[in-house]
Amino acid sequence: MPFRDIPVGPSRHLVRFVETDGALWALKELPQRIAEKEYAVLRDLEARSLPAVRPAGLVVQPDEGNAILVTRYLERSWQYRRLLMRIPPEQRAHRDRLLDAMASLLVDLHRNGVFWGDCSLANTLFSRDGQVLQAWLVDAETSEIHPQLSSGQRQHDVDILVENVAAGLYDLALRLDQSEEMFDALVEEAASVATRYEALWDVLHAEPVISYDERFQIEGQIRKIHELGFAVDEVNLQFTGDGTQTLQLKLVVAARRFHATQLQNITGLDVGEGQAKILLADLRAYQGKLQRETSAFISEQIAARRWTDEVLNPGMDRAHKAVGGVGEPIQAYCDLLEVRWLLSERAGEDVGDTVALDALSKSSVPPDSAAKMLVAEASTGQMRALSPGVLAELDPDVD
């Protein structure tokens, strides 16, 4: 079983990677009691389909009092340094995506009664999902699972996250020899994780009071939840009991798979929520185009089959070739759609696929485009610090 060298950040315990049976596995050696606890937590997270590395086994070493926790290596994932050391610091949009992903991960965990205890950039892996990032918990040594978290527990976890994110960004700025102004900006950005967390939490747990005559607002609240990618399991309405014709709305919010479930039901594709949102919009635009051309109703199922054969599959092939085969074909197609839209907005007209493919192939996409994050997926050797020369290479617009 050959060991593989995989770039990882600092760790309290020895972590090695081994390749066998065509798969890559992470082996972490730690005290037996802690290993057993982490293994149990990870199994629980897997059962709840929460974004965390998947446990594969536990090897106990009773003579030494240690154990080796075996987890499946998360394909096409990377640490925050891999992205932020390859993106010019001025391009804040990509850090925003990363911080949004951290806040979303913590919300997902807290909604399921999981207290992380050591939430940080270093204990998280990221993967691309359409125009956003998906964050994955990779270290559960300090995690606890409860029926429900108190406000105090949630706030404590958020405080830990803000402090650790600030430390991670500060360390990165030191490595990149950034200006004092950049350090101040990064501290503010780290603090914004709490705001991002609170904003998402408040939307998911809002219980608005509406008048009986304004029941249409229920649909608006549900749409807001769906737009964030969450499904709604139950809708409960109760009179407030204050003598007025007012109702309190309570929504039971399910997993963040609303668009992904829709797309899978229609096409059979199993993709991330962010990718599904983009692909569904593309599918429905194609369905509308078919109906205009034929002046006839085209069912979603028929449109989906034609879209898959005539649009998606050839589009994935062209887009994946344009980016040199880096990353997943489905993500490359999502990048193509985004870049085409951004360039069309700039031009004031539809520029078509050819122009967008050319931009992808030459890495000349708009700076804030999610497609810029492709650099995190590219396989390279030693990562270079972003010197002025490297910055100019990555972004010709940087002076």
UniProtKB/TrEMBL annotation:
Q: Any keyword Kinase?
A: yes
Q: From the UniProt record, which GO molecular function terms apply?
A: kinase activity
What's the protein here called? LPS kinase
Q: Does the keyword Kinase apply?
A: yes
Q: Where in this chain does the record put each DUF4032 domain?
A: 200-359
User: Species name for this entry?
Assistant: Virgisporangium aurantiacum
Q: Which InterPro entries match?
A: DUF4032 (IPR025111), Kinase-like_dom_sf (IPR011009)
Please, which domain of life does this record's source organism belong to? Bacteria
- What keywords sit in the KW lines? Kinase, Transferase
Q: Name one matching Pfam family.
A: DUF4032
